[in-house]
Amino acid sequence: MKQTQPLRMNYEFSRVYRQGRFISDRHVVLHYLRRGGQKNRLGITASRKVNSSVQRNRLKRLLRESYRQLEDQTVPGYDIILVARQTADEPNLHTILPEVQRLVRRAGLSSKRKQEPADVSGGCGLSR
User: Fold this and answer.
1) Looking at the whole model, is its pTM more than 0.90?
2) How far apart are CA 32 and CA 107, in angstroms?
3) What letter does residue 39 receive in the DSSP assignment?
4) Does residue 117 fall inside a structural domain?
5) What is the separation of C-alpha 72 from the centre of its chain, rounded to a whole number of angstroms?
6) What angle do CA 65, 4, 56 make, to 5 degrees?
7) Of the four, 18, 20, 21, 111, which is 20 to 30 A from 121 by CA?
């Protein structure tokens, strides 16, 4: 991840949890806080309810890879934390990636926004 720095310190995570906002989906929770600057900072954790360390580490690898694929589409200047949740099914990259993409879009962190149609009646001189 060339444009993103890691969140490492406990107080950085705590600040995002306390002052930031969050959006959740089935497998992932996205916490974010506007910080300013030229780069994003990313923290990845797994819920303590995920029992096995093998499962926790696998989920964290999936989250890291999904963010890596979306890194170019995110707006810089945010602290972002992705939290993996315990679910009954075993998620893979094909289920995690669309969830992370949807959460990033819903949070307004995506630089690729849908183009809205131009307002034809907006005084462009064509309507008489």
Assistant:
1) no
2) 8
3) S
4) no
5) 12
6) 40
7) 111
Residue 125 inside a domain? The answer is: no
Range of the domain at 51: 4-107
Q: Which two tokens stand for residue 106?
A: 């819903």
Judge contact between 81 and 16, C-beta under 8 A: yes
CB-hemisphere CA count at 13 Å for 111? 10
Number of domains in the chain: 1
Measured distance CA(94)–CA(62) in Å, rounded? 10
